[in-house]
Records
---
Amino acid sequence: MLAPLDLGWTTLKNRVLMGSMHTNLEEIPGGFERAAVYFAERAKGQVGLIVTGGISPNSEGCVAAMAAKLNTEEEVAHHKLITSAVHAEGGKICMQILHTGRYGYHPKIVAPSAIQAPINFFKPKELSHEEIEKTIDDYVKCALLAQKAGYDGVEIMGSEGYLINQFIATRTNQRQDEWGGSYENRIKFPIQIVNDTRKACGDNFIIIYRLSMLDLVEGGSTWSEVVQLAKAIEKVGATLINTGIGWHEARIPTIATVVPRKAFAWVTKKLKSEVNIPLIAVNRINMPDVAEEVLADGCADMISMARPFLADADLVLKTIEGRVDEINTCIACNQACLDHTFQLKISSCLVNPRACHETELNYLPTQAPKNIAVVGSGPAGLAYAHIAAMRGHKVDLYEAATQLGGQFNMAKIIPGKEEYAETIRYYQRMMVKYNVNVLLNTTANKDLLNDKYDEIILANGVVPRKLKIDGIDHPKVLSYIDVLQRKVEVGRSVAIIGAGGIGFDVAEFLVHHTNQEEEIKTFLATWGVDYEYATAGALKEAVVQKPAREVYLLKRSTGKHGATLGKTTGWIHKASLVANNVQMISDVEYQKIDDAGLHIVVKGESRILPVDHIVICAGQEPSRVLYSELLEEGLNPILIGGADEAAELDAKRAINQACHLAATV
Ligand SMILES: Cc1cc2nc3c(=O)[nH]c(=O)nc-3n(C[C@H](O)[C@H](O)[C@H](O)COP(=O)(O)O)c2cc1C
Ligand code: SF4
């Protein structure tokens, strides 16, 4: 049983679990050995309970062909590597059992009814009655094998639109037999799984049930159905109920950075008085103070943090030791975690490239300290300076601006990207902690850098690409830097030239009103989530404020806008701009700019966009002037980040490159 509830930093260990994340480590040769080290580091970092990524109870339920499953004795040995490593650090770990149903990416998928998911090109086969009973047995067998492998318990995945959810909702269950029809029939499948698992595994085994408290799809559960299921799950022996928010096919963001912190804790709170077993709140609870607020508000008994443990394995330890300002915060970008998982690559973390790479990227103390100059304090420069100094090198960090952070200072003011400020805060703290000599307002030049250093690292970023078009010097033309730094007053109608990541960000910045109050309720209303939960699936018509400006987002290339944005977040940025009436035009030839506005030709037809301003977001080029000067001096500078490769501004690549280089200098 859990420790009695007691709020306060030091008790967070007992109140925080590391949420389930499929990282693809389980699918690669040697992956279990790597996963063991990855989980053990988190256990050492004092997280109370860990849940593994989803493991299928049979081959039909796998995420992809040959993906991780546990239904044979031979597979137990792999899992023992994980459990013994976690137990050696004094941690506890549950294995998640996840059957994908119609979400699996392979031809053998099954579901209660043969209805294809809108996000999958495979169509499932309908399970027969006998196959349903066998599937339940497979869950139980899987739990028994997990117990044999040394897990402290299992989490039965009943949310996010996977097989169990598919049985529960009429959207996906149109059976006429005893597993379909009435709600009682549709929830028999999860109830029997939990019931039989408890009987088979005995009392001294944690069973977490991840319950879909908010489906966010048409034909989802009503609130009274959610309550009925929770009570039934409690009755048949679950130890804890975890929260699931939104099916994968839902068109409402549930974990991306546009989702305010603790945006869904209210749903768990709604269930709190209905059951007696502890409840776990989830999603976008990324810092200890947010976790404390959720607990203090009585929303839940425990907090699940998933991605925050990719960003920082020591989150709980740092909290216990009063070092909250040293936590490397998850910024909910999804760029190196969920995007990788869906691309079948090993997950990691944009702000912590060691995540899931603990056996191959290590920051060991140097035996030969060097004098190092780092020029530029964007993500690449900061990451390099941090790791090099932590390893014992003497680092001078040159920054021409008045503050650290480079392009992240612009990212953090884009609506929905405020979390980027946390990364700057983290690095500021690391500069102090590891005695990096920070030289603000200092433009590095060959005289400053000559002769003094063993290594010169140029992380001085990019310069916006110059566009060749008649009228480019017209006063209507603005640079995105001046716009985002609020150095200019932008008019009511704007054309943005260039629809890459920066063009999208600038459009988002320009259509939003400032000072939105009631952040969570505004977010829910904007995306059409029914906070009153009066409808099935908790959906209602979205309420979008009139955009602050009329915006055109233009690009030269053909094809849809947003194709280069993140796999799991691109659709959110696009949907937001569509809701704000941003007009997206492709295949544009730019003719000239004058008092009348921007003259363009689209598919052979001439148009004038009578806009107040034109913002240029037409890409950027590496900043190389200093590099050339240093080469001429016979020095050997190393380029990193945007100064090395500027195609798209890519913080993931920049930090990853910086950390790898600093690990070996
Ligand atoms: C890379 C990745 C993989 C995930 N895999 C699973 C999974 O296998 N099972 C599951 O229940 N949830 C999975 N999730 C969802 C997380 O458990 C969690 O609900 C989500 O990340 C939001 O919580 P957070 O804001 O604390 O990260 C995954 C999330 C990520 C980022
Ligand atoms: S990649 Fe982004 S979302 Fe994923 S864990 Fe790291 S910071 Fe969080």
---
Amino acid sequence: MSAIMNRIKGKLVVSCQAYPGDPLEDTETIRRVASAAVRGGAAGLRLNGVKDIAAVRRDTGLPIIGINKKYWNDQLRITPDFASAAEVAHAGADIIALDCTNRAWPAGDPWQEMIARIHSELKLLVMADIATLAEALNAAAAGADMVGMTLNGYTEETSSSRGFSWPLLHDLVKQANRPVIAEGHISTPDEARRAIARGAWSVVVGSAITRPGVITAGFVQAMERPAPSGSAVAIDIGSTYIKSGLVDRAGEVSLADRFLTRASGGRDAIAAGASLAIQSALTLARERGIDPIGLGIATGGAIDARDGTVFGATDNLPGWAGFDLRGFAVDRFHLPTCVNNDAHAAALAELHFGMGRGVSDFVAITIGTGVGGGIVSGGKLMRGRLGFAGSFGHHTIRFDGRPCNCGRRGCLEAYVSTASLIHEYRELSGQLLNPNAEDAESALKISQLASAGDPCAVEAYSILAGYLGEAAANLFNILDPEIILISGGLVEGHPHFAAQVEDRVTNLIHFGAKRRPRIQMSAAGQFTGLQGAAASVFEAHDEALR
Ligand SMILES: [Zn+2]
């Protein structure tokens, strides 16, 4: 008897049944559906009724789980008496499945008695169709050879259960002491694979494979579902300005405004500015009758992805480290709130509204006073455990190289940034520019010189492109993205920069000519941070509805 069990171990059993009134309710049709399932690789079949079982038995030697559905006053019961079990046994079933729930059934035989008689008189295996752990334990005690989750969700006690019950599978695998057959609401190949991985003996799939009417209805319903709607309030906290606005599902930004960050005032001043920016956008939105679905925040600094606190920040935002930014915003505005660092927000903006739309694997690099990064893998932003994923400004491209403000040496950020552009230009030209100017001002000047064809400025950019090329080659080797998008004030207006980086990467990586690494300038504009912050709100909102 265990030979039959072993043939379905770890495998797919396909249930081929038509329901009363279904156009497929016809033995020849069921025979053909079963035959198609067998050709597809099914290891066993579950079939209802003498006629269907006998017809399919003539075609195949695969194990058949036979049932005999009977109705009594509109109520259905699976193989409710010994006579119906004997019928399907004679038709050719190898395993008899029967209802072993606690539900009362006025006609028929007690299932405990049936299990014993199927074993002794029919010499067949018994699959106990149950809805709960307690029922499975009773069935196992009565001698059932395996337990099937078939009836979970169909008894009064389990009527609140929607979809496949993973907790019940877990409990049964642990406690039933019998092979557990995962059956009922398994609707995707991935769920079937997971059920086996979590200890199911085999998986029975019915409707998702053999009922075209049900499959079609699923498509129709999904297509009729209204497109997600709603707008989010977003703010983007930088060291000079806090931008605010309302962002819709298409990434359109309206009611945009900006406020001074007043970073020199420390945490309280920055927080007050953020609060003002949020309040302003929220008030304007509500005046127009728009009720935002949430609040998205992009900010400089490292953000703890678990709770939206500021993990750390540079001197550009003094006192910002350690601030419970999400808690602060939720307390004041009572909106679902998502906090992102600005580089992650940029990657989200590309993914949802920019050049990353429809690209499942890409990397977004932002170059300015430092280097920020966001990795999108499999269509999802990779945040990492604490939210630090994508911090490749601090990956080493020169062992024991230039000191970096993170304390290490040779980081990418020490070679590609505003300060390093100034450094390279100074080395090449011997000019100091205006020594009293801010870095940003000097970098802007070099950018303008490069655009005008000044050889030293052009060369400074090409040196930076060489360094970035090494870093990008590392990223292509580690992450295998389709494209790397570059953005940031430092490289804006320099389309050749991306082409230089691309050439460098092509020469550096294995099979570069074949792999054709693509590096492109992002088309992102001034509202990227707002769009990315809003995108995180939309993602969280849609995830909660799923
Ligand atoms: Zn560093």
